[in-house]
Amino acid sequence: MVKIIGMILVFGGATAIGFYLPGLLKKKLEFLVNFRQSVYLLRNEINYSINTLVVSFLNIFERSNNQYVKNFFLEIYEQLENKDSVNLRNVWEVGIDDLSNKEIINENEKKYLKSFGNSLGYLDKEMQLKNIDLLIESLDESIKRLKENYEKHSKLYSRMGILVGLMVVVVMF
Known about the structure:
There is one protein chain. The protein is mostly helical. The chain has one domain. The chain is 86% helix and 0% strand. The longest helix is centred in the C-terminal third of the chain and has 48 residues, at 125-172. It is elongated, with a radius of gyration of 21 Å. The N and C termini lie close together (12 Å).
């Protein structure tokens, strides 16, 4: 009886891991797509609006659909709104580090997002727009790569989880 319960648990665990990994890839992909849309919103705010960056971050928070993107821009807005001596660059880096710790972005994405944050608010309007365009290009490349990875590996991960679970169950039996 204990052996059967163990087999069920092993099979269920391996299968769950097999379905968890594609879900993680999909979550990262959704984040990057929504973050790119938010950067487009920021571009439009800078180009066509007379709002400050702080107000622009609040507007992006209100329009975003992804919870990680919403939390990122809300955190930046709140810290910049509540503290006059806070540096946008430092707040941006903390937010990017938080996303990296939650495994939403990889090291390469972390690097170019931090690089973007270093110049945000310091350049003139045209340079900021060019910097945003570069960020959008980088995000597009990451999204393309992640889509290919997701399409290539999602079925593999789920099937391998089932097969590994079955293999272990057969060995246990």
